[in-house]
Amino acid sequence: MGYTKEQLLARLQELQIDFSFSEHPVVLTVEAQAKHVGHMNGALSKNLFLKDKKQRYYVVSALADTKVDLKVLSQRLGLGKGGIRMAPEEALSEILQVPLGCVTPFALVNESARHASLLLDQGFKSQGRCIFHPLSNDMSIALNARDLDKFLNSIEKTAAYVDLEANPPVGKDQPPDLAGLVPSSDTTVLTDPLGKQGSSQGSEKHHISSNDRPTVVTVPKAVKPSNASTKDKSSGAKSTSISYADPEKFVEEILEKTRSILLTELKEAENIEKYREQLGNELKNLATMFKNSAYTEGFGAGIHHQPKRM
After folding, report:
1. 67 Cβ contact partners less than 8 Å away, ≥ 6 residues apart
2. Which of 39, 49, 145, 243 has the highest CB neighbour count under 10 A?
3. If 0-12 CB within 10 Å is exposed, 13-18 middle and 19+ buried, where does residue 201 land?
4. Contacts of 162 (CB under 8 A, 6+ apart)
5. Is-contact 209 104, C-beta < 8 A?
6. Do 217 and 69 contact (CB within 8 A), yes or no?
7. Strand partners, 60
8. How many angstroms separate the Cα of 168 from the Cα of each of 23, 59, 79?
9. 271 to each of 171, 172, 218, 252, 268, how far by Cα in Å?
10. How much of the chain is in helix, strand and coil states, percent to nearest 5?
11. Which residue in 120, 130, 139 sits closest to 68, CA to CA?
12. Across the 310 residues of the chain, what is the mean pLDDT of every consecutive 10-residue run?
């Protein structure tokens, strides 16, 4: 059983945290919440509960007007463009232990959620007070960023304030700036309850907390391609025969060369033809080596296994 809002409020009082609260009807959107908390003089927030392909979880809390591009965020975490998505409903109840519409940084008070990574909008620091749900969307509380930090420190959770609208380039010489915020692989506490990776808009609609707004998807800036080194083409005929006589190794080599060329960002459209030509030449070379290897193997087999003459 997770913390209740009453237990959370009691803990905030024990920590001598200055906060105000307001009870209101259950709200499912930030617009609906705004109608009930105008008198609190605070900045509204939206909160996302995300997961990556390795079943690691993230709580992202941002100002209501901050544009959060999940593709860009995923790249900045070092997870690729499509590395994160909305967590399934089951994860809300099993990890954060809150119902739909109640995602909040305060949910990390639950032991089951301690391993989730928390990313906070750096814009919170410039606000006098910020408004969140206290584990329930029939109430809102307002407090400043320092007191939020005080609460997080009490549960041994380090606050990471980041510019969620930034889109820094990521490449060979420019590593992902938020990679250090990815939870370690051995801290997973829940596998995918649905057993699939589906990422529909319906999932996002149901799993954004009550004080969230839809994620704004913008076109990220292109990243300068890295000059991936090609493999040495001067290997001897003997070793070539050994490598490419095996179809599995042949396919692996094709995939490796394809990856080294295509898994980079193209900064300018005219570079596409250059990379297309490069990849084409690589594949032609591989195909030729495979053909020669197959011919050599077949010729050798014919010599050693000639039928006996009558």
Report:
1. 164, 165, 216, 218
2. 49
3. exposed
4. 119, 120, 121, 122, 178, 181
5. yes
6. yes
7. 48, 119
8. 40, 21, 14
9. 17, 18, 23, 25, 6
10. 40, 15, 45
11. 120
12. 94 97 94 95 96 96 97 96 93 94 96 95 97 97 97 93 96 92 66 38 37 36 42 42 53 61 46 58 64 56 52
Q: What is the pLDDT of residue 290?
A: 61
Count of residues in the chain: 310
Both tokens assigned to 191? 């596998």
CB 266 within 8 A of CB 222: yes
- Closest by alpha carbon to 46, among 105, 116, 129? 105
Q: How far apart are CA 13 and CA 81, in angstroms?
A: 42
Output the six-digit token pair for 41: 């003089």
Amino acid in the structure at residue 270: E
Place of tokens 């990243």: 223
